[in-house]
């Protein structure tokens, strides 16, 4: 059964990362036993052997089956597969077993092991080039990012002039777009699932990009469905129907002003799943690299994160919260300060462009009398009119404040953000 899903949420919640994680379900690896044996002979890394066996099986393989496969390869070395999976597991050990990098194995389905492709590439960005260069990697997906100039011609089909080397002339014949190409391949292999991933789906002109497909993508209008629907494409004049084995996934930034412009017709044809800020992800990801998120050189990052978001929601709304991904790479208090200075505060300045004092409220930079605190993160200086203008004529000028980020954001400054919050 096909599905159309849009994952939406505030900036920094990892929506694009979420899509990249889904790619695992749409990649087939053709890996021979000879390749596995040769790679292990040259590298002798137990985790690498297990990784290749899991990928050969396309994931979802029991530890006992991995053990049997390893034994059948005749490597003349006894391996405890369960221990290796546990040692390199993504999750922390409930029994206190020491973890080692790369931590890439996980049980998506209880009892069946998979390789976390995103973590694998974080550990070795050239993994597939290093170890699978001679194997067949079949990608059953397309990944696109919508933007203002992305069009129907790019997505479905259109006339895009190309130079023909044979005839030495310009070819003006209709060319298939990203989605049509994927559907053509999916129609040839109905036994496999295919997907198109659309990042920033709300930034494109939805009605123009989808055109007549806005009706065809409905799950009950797909090929073979009870209400199958087809359309004649305007350029090629071909009869087109969307295969039932094509899934459509998109991401949407809920803080983006263009979200209100999403076509009602599109809303009806997609499931909307929120991806929300989650301090537990910060906790687990930092724990993954041996950092205690509750005490980073004296700073309680979890309390700081939750406090910031609670204040933003009170002053604005839940669509403009701060995502957890901003803090996933911090290791020190200085890292936290730099994230605030370079990522969070510029975002807040965009949110509160017409009222910068609200940024001071979010960062707890003012005392109960409205005066600037000693260790304030977001500061201001007074700009009195009479100091700079001896005469203003008929202009009604008012004193103003110049806002700026403190040059030194100390541990005390960071603690002050959540000071007094129980």
Explain what you see.
The chain has 18 helices and 18 strands. The protein has 422 residues and is α/β, with parallel strands linked by helices. The chain folds into three domains: 32-134; 141-274, 3-Layer(aba) Sandwich (Rossmann fold), CATH 3.40.50; 279-417, no CATH class. Strand 13 and strand 14 (239-240) form a beta hairpin. Helix 2 runs antiparallel to helix 3. The model has no long low-confidence stretch (mean pLDDT 90).
Percent helix, as a range, is: 25-40%
- The number of distinct helices, counting runs of at least 4 residues, comes to 18
Structural class: alpha/beta
Oligomeric state, counting identical vs distinct chains: single chain
Approximate strand percentage: 15-25%
Q: What is the number of strand segments?
A: 18
> Main beta sheet, described?
5 strands, parallel
**How are the strands ordered across the major sheet?**
7-12-15-1-16
Q: What is the rounded distance between the termini?
A: 48 Å
* Global geometry: flat
Radius of gyration over all CA atoms, rounded = 27 Å
What ranges have pLDDT less than 50 throughout 5 or more consecutive residues? Answer: none
What would the keywords be for this entry?
422 residues, alpha/beta, Rossmann fold, 3 domains, five-stranded parallel β-sheet, three-stranded antiparallel β-sheet, 18 helices, 36% helix, 18% strand, flat
How are the SSEs placed, and which strands pair?
Blueprint lengths: L3 E6 L5 H8 L4 E4 L2 H11 L2 H11 L4 E2 H10 L8 H7 L17 E5 L2 E4 L1 H7 L3 H5 L4 E4 L1 E5 L6 H4 L1 E3 L2 E3 L4 E3 L2 E3 L1 H11 L5 E6 L6 H5 L2 H4 L14 E2 L6 E2 L5 E8 L10 H6 L1 E4 L4 H10 L12 H15 L17 H19 L5 H6 L15 E6 L1 H4 L11 E6 L5 H7 L5
Parallel strand pairs: 1-15, 1-16, 7-12, 12-15
Antiparallel strand pairs: 2-6, 3-5, 4-5, 8-11, 9-10, 13-14, 17-18
């Amino acid at each position: 059964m096909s599905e159309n899903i849009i994952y939406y949420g505030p900036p920094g919640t990892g929506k694009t990362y979420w899509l990249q994680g889904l790619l695992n379900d749409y990649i087939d690896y053709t890996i021979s036993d000879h390749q596995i044996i040769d790679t292990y002979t040259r590298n002798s890394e137990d985790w690498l052997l297990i990784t290749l066996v899991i990928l050969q099986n396309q994931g979802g393989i029991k530890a006992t089956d991995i053990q049997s496969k390893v034994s059948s390869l005749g490597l003349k070395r006894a391996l405890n597969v369960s221990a290796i999976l546990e040692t390199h597991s993504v999750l922390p050990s409930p029994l206190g077993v020491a973890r080692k990098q790369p931590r890439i194995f996980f049980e998506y389905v209880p009892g069946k092991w998979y390789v976390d492709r995103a973590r694998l590439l974080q550990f070795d960005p050239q993994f597939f080039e290093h170890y699978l260069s001679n194997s067949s990697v079949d990608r059953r997906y397309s990944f696109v990012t919508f933007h203002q100039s992305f069009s129907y011609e790019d997505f479905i089909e259109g006339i895009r002039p190309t130079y023909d080397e044979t005839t030495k002339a310009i070819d003006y014949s209709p060319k298939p777009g990203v989605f049509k190409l994927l559907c053509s391949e999916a129609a040839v292999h109905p036994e496999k699932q295919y997907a198109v991933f659309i990042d920033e789906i709300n930034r494109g002109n939805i009605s123009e990009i989808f055109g007549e497909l806005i009706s065809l993508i409905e799950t009950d209008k797909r090929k073979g469905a009870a209400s199958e629907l087809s359309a004649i494409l305007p350029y090629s004049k071909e009869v087109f129907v969307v295969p039932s084995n094509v899934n459509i996934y998109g991401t949407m930034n809920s803080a983006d002003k263009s979200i209100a412009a999403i076509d009602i017709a599109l809303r009806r044809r997609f499931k909307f799943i929120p991806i929300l800020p989650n301090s537990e992800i910060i906790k687990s990801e930092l724990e993954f690299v041996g950092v205690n998120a509750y005490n980073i050189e004296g700073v309680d990052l979890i309390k700081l994160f939750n406090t910031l978001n609670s204040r933003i929601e009170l002053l604005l709304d839940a669509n403009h919260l701060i995502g957890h991904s901003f803090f996933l790479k911090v290791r020190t208090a200085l890292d936290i300060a730099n994230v605030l200075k370079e990522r969070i505060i510029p975002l807040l300045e965009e949110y509160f462009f017409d009222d910068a004092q609200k940024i001071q409220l979010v960062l707890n930079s003012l005392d109960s009398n409205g005066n600037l605190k000693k260790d304030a993160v977001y500061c201001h200086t007074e700009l009195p009119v009479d100091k700079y203008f001896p005469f203003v004529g008929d202009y009604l000028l008012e004193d103003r404040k110049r806002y700026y980020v403190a040059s030194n954001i100390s541990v005390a400054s960071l603690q002050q953000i959540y000071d007094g919050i129980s």
